[in-house]
Amino acid sequence: MKTRNLIIILAAAFSLMMLGCADENGGTGGMAGTGGMAGTGGMAGAGGTAGAGGMAGNLIAPLDNDSLQNPAVSEFLSITGTRDFAYTDQISYPMGDTEDFVEFEFPNNSNPAQQVMITLDCTFSEAQNGAIVSATVWEDGVEDIGLRADCNDGEQTLTVDNTKVQTVRIYFSGTPTDDEQTLVDYTITIVGFQ
Ligand SMILES: [Ca+2]
What we know:
The N and C termini lie far apart (112 Å). A hairpin with a 2-residue loop joins strand 5 (132-139) and strand 6 (142-150). The chain has helices at 2-46, 50-53; strands at 73-76, 84-93, 99-105, 113-124, 132-139, 142-150, 156-161, 166-174, 182-191. The protein has two helices and nine strands, in the order ααβββββββββ. Residues 64, 66, 97, 99-100 line the site of calcium ion.
């Protein structure tokens, strides 16, 4: 009888030990929860939002190497062909690509006082602080400052000489007074024939 009681007591003690172990494991499971803190380390990934701070770097328009002689696009406008076109790009100041060139040409035998409608729509990354972006027309490589459309100033109707090739320069005609890095997303729309 005594031996049997002893076995029962030992069995009960063993069961308690096992329960204890189970508790410990459970506790360790809780530690895994602490591992969940590593998930908080995932917040460091949110530190990747600091990459959004890298947005400051993104305020630089990439150099695209266009020029008066080598415009970004060149369109021949005619009443039976391409009547109008739009070009979208970026310029920035003081760092990055500060100007772009877009070329168009009319048939020589059409109206010598050729009307062209130019609209320049812009979004500035900063408060403009004096920054002005304009599009001026060059005819056969010579700038005519009177042929001009400014950002967000609506459609401008300009008269050009259709015996010449027109190139539009999009650039900062006024720079930000605080020299804050400024990126401008723009779309220029050129309508030769409506
Ligand atoms: Ca450019």
